[in-house]
Sequence to fold (342 residues):
Amino acid sequence: MSRETLTPELAEIIRTIRLQNKITSKDLANHINKSPAYITKMERGDFSTLDSTELYLVLKYITKEKDDDKTIKYLYKSLEHKYSNREIEEQLWFYNYDTTVRNIMISSELIDYINHFLEKNDISRELLNYRINSNEALPPEDIIDNSLPINRWYCKDRNEFKTFIKIYLPASQMNSILDKNCTFTPYIFVYCILFYSLKIKEYKNQKELSSEEYRILIKETKNILHEYNFLSTTTRNEYAHNNKKINSIVNNFDNNSSSCISNILEKFTIASNKDALKTDNQLKSFLDNLSWDLGFMLKLISLNFGSLKYTSISNRKRLICEIDSLIAKYQSSDISDNIEDY
Fold:
């Protein structure tokens, strides 16, 4: 039987939503077969944990929503007034409800994409299921720790908030998803199917990866799921926030510049969707170059490379090698703080 930590934020939101919707503690107590005194203790945070099933019954009842999807949206709106997206994710009771309990409709196109990806990269379902259930992204000590919850997010150190999840995805359930025999599924299962498919393709039998390599894999997984509109609530709102931020920046330019920047971002997105690991590293180098000498880099990328459109790939590669050689040739220890105009 799984349990959720009764955080001060959770205790507060239960009481706040109950009062907002004019639900008495007696009515709530009757709904979960407890006493009014039990509800009072819950809302004071006197318990350290709550039974997960009981918690979900409470949240559905006080929000007056019948399904998990609407309940999650109601809870998120209640939380976002006081907390950031990151702080909401750190409420593991919410994150568990959103990603491991709530069933999300999965599009046929997303399943087609995953099946095509598996076939193209010669990844068998048996291997994929084995790698998912091996939980190789977990710390080694957690893999063998049978006391840890299954299919539930947990955090080992609140001072350095880092979440983990120990997955068990039955082969029958994975095949049901991939064979389109189920229309709805928890977010975490589809996420793991795609995440480990990408991991096998990129790293073959390599089990241990660096934090940076995992970060890039996570980003690529989320980007693909976003493309097919299969999102957790926090991820959906994170994308919405980022889009608003980007649009706000773009709108500060004149019309011509705004159009150019939008097109540049679109090209970067296409490249990232094709190969997130490679694109991420290239964009980091590009950013470093902009930080080194913005004027020089703007002049360099404004050169008419488009005139080489009919040049062969081998010649383009040769050009890159020659540019590398020129960079090595002109390296100097001379340091100047002047901003040059090129």
The longest strand covers residues 3-5. The chain has a mean pLDDT of 87. The chain is about 65% helix and 5% strand. The beta strands are 3-5, 49-51, 103-105, 153-155, 163-165, 184-186.
